[in-house]
């Protein structure tokens, strides 16, 4: 993206801002591109334009909305290589994972294009002669989409697709740490035929712009993905005007390995579930509870697998092999993970991994696995959000599930067993919005995604993902004389 190109979209026009922000590759520190950021005034103007566009877009046929989303999905797929590389460089995401994220984003657009054309109401059986009752779903109004840097395209797509499919108009804001590929997602939507103002995009200070948007009288629903602490503040601000909050917040996913687990599959799943996107995922396996009968072998094999991973840039130079593990988003994030690991070891934990080397340039961190001395160690109770984890030995299922559920978070949870009865029991006893049984990557567009307890409100994906952006209207109809 040229540095001089306007990156805010307001009322169908790409406009600049008041400040230029550089976006840097965490692998190298090189500038990948720039955005023009602005403040509350631009956010208010974007909401004004969304409100003006609402009557026309909400009145558009479901077929038309579906056609636009299908066209945007095709555009995204046609630019897969270009946008995957851009995403990898700005977010430090390994290129294969970045390309997968572009594919997943296109799938959200395609899925909600199909959902848009499904029936959106219900005719109730009459209980009195001459009277009829029906319920219909209508778009809620202007919607706000607030997304983080770790999956900047797919999370934005997971919000924008159902908002637009439902007939809402949108103001989107991306993280300033990884905004470039998400900006191109918005460009794909506009070029697919969205009318001016149906989608708007602003870059700028998170708190300032979020406050301006939630205070805007036309905004009726906000979808936010991020930390629990920030999610609470978003919900509090939204509550002042009764703006509907849809919140996907922090996770602390347990990974339970029972004594009958297939250890080959469990270790492979643990590596993928813990270290995907360098561990910077809210649904990542964050803490391991392993039955005593297999704990030693599992820990040794997982530590060896961690040690064997090759660290390197998200996008390798020509002729260089693709790294197994990329950089963290910035040095502050890496330092936080180092502190958690060092603290666990200082409190009596055993560092099971042996490698400590990492590329000198960039925000790299060798993966670490610690057998903690206390199940309440901060390495276990904190969402690590990086390539490190604590492992705890348990004596039976009851202890595993009691420890797994001893958290305020409840976004995702995982269990590994070869017994169907124990698998079903795990799905019932693990307290989380998403449960993976022998599956470290449970997220799909056609199933609901979201947490319980302090991990959020509402669901994204599936049919319910569009219902979050619709109101239900009851129509009572009495026959005339």
TrEMBL record:
<protein>
    <submittedName>
        <fullName>Aldehyde dehydrogenase family protein</fullName>
    </submittedName>
</protein>
<feature type="domain" description="Aldehyde dehydrogenase">
    <location>
        <begin position="14"/>
        <end position="475"/>
    </location>
</feature>
<keyword id="KW-0560">Oxidoreductase</keyword>
<dbReference type="InterPro" id="IPR016162">
    <property type="entry name" value="Ald_DH_N"/>
</dbReference>
<comment type="similarity">
    <text>Belongs to the aldehyde dehydrogenase family.</text>
</comment>
<dbReference type="InterPro" id="IPR029510">
    <property type="entry name" value="Ald_DH_CS_GLU"/>
</dbReference>
<dbReference type="Pfam" id="PF00171">
    <property type="entry name" value="Aldedh"/>
</dbReference>
<dbReference type="InterPro" id="IPR016160">
    <property type="entry name" value="Ald_DH_CS_CYS"/>
</dbReference>
<feature type="active site">
    <location>
        <position position="248"/>
    </location>
</feature>
<dbReference type="InterPro" id="IPR016161">
    <property type="entry name" value="Ald_DH/histidinol_DH"/>
</dbReference>
<dbReference type="InterPro" id="IPR050740">
    <property type="entry name" value="Aldehyde_DH_Superfamily"/>
</dbReference>
<dbReference type="InterPro" id="IPR016163">
    <property type="entry name" value="Ald_DH_C"/>
</dbReference>
<dbReference type="InterPro" id="IPR015590">
    <property type="entry name" value="Aldehyde_DH_dom"/>
</dbReference>
């Amino acid at each position: 993206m040229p540095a001089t190109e306007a990156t805010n979209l307001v009322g169908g026009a790409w406009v600049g801002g008041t400040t230029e922000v550089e976006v840097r590759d965490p692998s190298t520190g090189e500038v990948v591109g720039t955005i023009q950021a602005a403040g509350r005034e631009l956010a208010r103007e974007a909401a004004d334009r969304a409100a003006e566009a609402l009557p026309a877009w909400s009145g558009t046929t479901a077929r038309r909305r579906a056609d636009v989303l299908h066209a945007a999905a095709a555009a995204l797929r046609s630019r897969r290589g270009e946008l995957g590389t851009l995403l990898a460089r700005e977010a430090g995401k390994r290129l294969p994972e970045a390309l997968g994220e572009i594919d997943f984003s296109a799938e959200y657009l395609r899925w909600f294009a199909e959902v848009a054309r499904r029936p959106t109401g219900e005719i109730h059986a009459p209980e009195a002669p001459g009277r009829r009752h029906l319920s219909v779903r209508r778009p809620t109004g202007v919607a706000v989409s607030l997304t983080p840097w770790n999956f900047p395209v797919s999370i934005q797509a997971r919000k924008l697709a159902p908002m637009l499919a439902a007939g809402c108009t949108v103001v989107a804001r991306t993280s300033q740490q990884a905004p470039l590929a998400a900006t191109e997602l918005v460009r794909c939507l506009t070029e697919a035929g969205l009318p001016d103002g149906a989608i708007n995009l602003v870059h700028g200070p998170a708190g300032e712009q979020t406050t301006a948007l939630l205070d805007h009288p036309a905004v009726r629903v906000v979808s936010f993905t991020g930390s629990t602490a920030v999610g609470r503040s978003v919900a509090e601000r939204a509550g002042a005007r009764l703006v509907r909050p849809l919140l996907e917040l922090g996770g602390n996913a347990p990974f339970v390995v029972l004594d009958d687990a297939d250890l080959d599959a469990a270790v492979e799943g643990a590596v993928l579930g813990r270290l995907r996107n360098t561990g910077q995922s809210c649904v990542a396996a964050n803490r391991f509870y392993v039955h005593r009968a297999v704990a030693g072998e599992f820990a040794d094999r997982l530590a060896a697998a961690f040690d064997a991973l090759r660290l390197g840039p998200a996008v390798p130079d020509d002729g260089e092999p693709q790294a197994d593990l990329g950089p963290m988003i910035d040095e502050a994030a890496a330092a936080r993970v180092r502190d958690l690991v060092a603290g666990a070891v200082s409190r009596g934990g055993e560092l099971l991994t042996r490698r400590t080397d990492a590329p000198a340039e960039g925000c790299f961190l060798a993966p670490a696995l610690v057998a903690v001395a206390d199940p309440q160690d901060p390495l276990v109770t904190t969402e690590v959000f990086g390539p490190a984890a604590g492992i705890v030995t348990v004596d039976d299922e009851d202890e595993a599930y009691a420890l797994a559920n001893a958290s305020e978070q409840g976004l995702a949870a995982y269990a590994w067993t070869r017994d169907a009865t124990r698998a079903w029991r795990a799905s019932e006893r693990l307290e989380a919005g998403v449960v993976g049984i022998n599956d470290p990557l449970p997220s799909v567009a056609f199933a609901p995604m979201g947490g319980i307890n302090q991990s959020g409100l509402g669901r994204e994906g599936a049919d319910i993902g569009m219902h979050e952006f619709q109101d239900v209207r009851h129509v009572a109809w009495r026959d005339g004389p």
